[in-house]
Amino acid sequence: MINRWLKAGILAVIAVLVYLFIHFGIDAIASKSVLSTLRHIDPSVSIGDIDIGSGVLLLEDTYFPEKELFLRTAVIYWSGNLLDPVIDSILVHGGYWRSGFSSGTGEESGSGRKIPPGRFVNFEIVNGSDSGVISGVFSGSSFGDSLKLQLESSWGMGTGTVFFGSQSDSIHVSWFRCSRLPASLVYTPEMLQGFVIEGCISAFIGDHVEAEGVITEVDGESAEVYFELDDSSGSPEVWLSTDLKNVRDVLIAQAGSLLGDVYIDFSPEGYFALEFMDDNTVGVSVDALLDSVRIYSPGLADDTVNTAAALRFDGTVCISSWDVSIESGTIMFGDMTVSFDLKGRFNERPSLSLRLWNDSFSGEDITSSVPSELLGCLEGLQLSGEASFDILVSLDWETPDSSDFQARVDVSDLSVQASPISIGQLRNGGSCLMRDSWEGRRRIYLDTLNNPGFVLFDSLHPSFEGLLKCAEDATFRTHGGFCEYHIRNSIRANMESGEFTRGGSTITMQLARNLFLGREKTFARKIQEVFLTWRLEAYLSKNRMLEIYANIVELGPDVFGFQEAARYYFDRDLMDISTRQVAYLVSILPGPRLYYRYYRNNSVPDYWENYLDRLINISENRGWIDPDSASRARAESIVFRPRI
Length: 644
Hints:
Layout: H1 2-29, H2 34-38, E1 46-53, E2 56-64, E3 69-81, E4 84-97, H3 107-110, E5 118-127, E6 130-138, E7 146-153, E8 156-163, E9 169-178, E10 197-205, E11 209-218, E12 221-230, E13 237-243, H4 248-259, E14 263-278, E15 281-296, E16 305-318, E17 323-333, E18 336-345, E19 351-362, H5 363-369, H6 372-375, E20 382-396, E21 404-410, E22 414-418, E23 431-435, E24 441-445, H7 464-472, H8 484-497, H9 507-516, H10 523-539, H11 542-552, E25 554-556, E26 559-560, H12 562-570, H13 579-587, H14 592-600, H15 606-621, H16 627-634
Parallel strand pairs: 4-5
Antiparallel strand pairs: 1-2, 2-3, 3-4, 5-6, 6-7, 7-8, 8-9, 9-10, 10-11, 11-12, 12-13, 13-14, 14-15, 15-16, 16-17, 17-18, 18-19, 19-20, 20-21, 20-22, 23-24, 25-26
């Protein structure tokens, strides 16, 4: 297809020069005006200078407005006599042609006439915003010969040869480098724009175009991507495919670009294919095995994660709207397979619906597939039995309230064969090492025998549980450690704000973090937290979990638990403080160091007092605190103990 406009332009130039020379020679003998002769070609022609010598005709600054053709310098070498001149060759140096990138062959211009050899230097072909400067050699004759050329354009460059035939032509570009194709020549799918590619291409051009080639470099990274093009259906159909090991560097570079501050390396096998089904639809097919995957990201784990993965799917992409659809794809990590469906729109109104499921997988598959770097303190964990899950996440960035989260998880047949962390000891005792935001640390024993200050569940403030549930986890008594409602609301809130401002943790999940995990915010910690939450719910009663929680949570500098906090802030035991004071201690749970400024300034701002009123009102409406306590609490304001 590329040689159509080149051929049209070059043959047009040659045909004009041949016509001009023949008529000029005859008219010169007849002593006619040169300008009159040129007007047979274009009535509006203008010419800067004409010079004729023995065997040479020189034209300077010749412009044919109707043909939008300008020849800076044209030299015609001829032999014979003016009555029957023979054109030996033509040289064009500089100029331009603005006739556009025609899909015609231009053969009518020179049909029936032998076209002489020619050379073109710095000749520009222009169409709208696209332009190209060609230099080349035409071997001569209307059909059966070739044009060797070099092209430099606004969209790329290349070298190649055009072969002309009586019924069809062909082209071989031995090397090209471009960032796009000329818009008026070939439609370049949007998803392929923006890449700088190198390669070679061969094409057959007759009633339609068939082309095939190899892309050998993408954005400076070596590659080996095969492509085919066929426009016999009336619109270009394009296929791209590659063995993934041939584009390893490109994949790693693109993954790094998408993921940001992440180190990633892997050895890919398999294939990747694109089929441009029409001007607006692309089919995507992937069957990839990623061996020796190494990933380091501060948000993933503290150490480099080593794993292996596989990915298989077929899908489609709508280019105009960037709608993506994948049905029944699979991802495999080690021995663990996850099926997925994905539908999304990635334009100015982005949305995403992702379903992940596995109807049956074994405990052995889990423990053998999760990298040890993600297990952390759970390294050595062994599971058995069967489990299943089905999770749906729907995200709508334009209307966050439409986002949704649904999960069906069945681990009833899953059991623990070995675990480096023992949960059972926490039923009646145990201990944990707590750290505060002031870099303090202390081991806290979870029974009255080893810790006289430990507050049993029955001795907690009557308003404690209700206010805690109101602020942190309304469904604590009914869920199994995880709450769809919490996760759904946190997704919506974070999408609304555009950043992570709210987590979806339940009280059980918070307890798991406090008891066993550090303060790092990583995906690895979240995996460990999920497992430990499941085990806490299996081993401990809700009362025992609240009891431990109330005695260990950070609430100030070297202040752990509500009893210590009641003494620190109000100089009273927990049972003796007011409902409003309990509400205050609950309210600072998300950030004790952040909210410590209220105590340091000896003043709680009005907006925070209003927040305490909300906690009290909601808890009363739900029946979690008695009306008398709520009424007295609303009449109070927070007054801290005098600071020494």
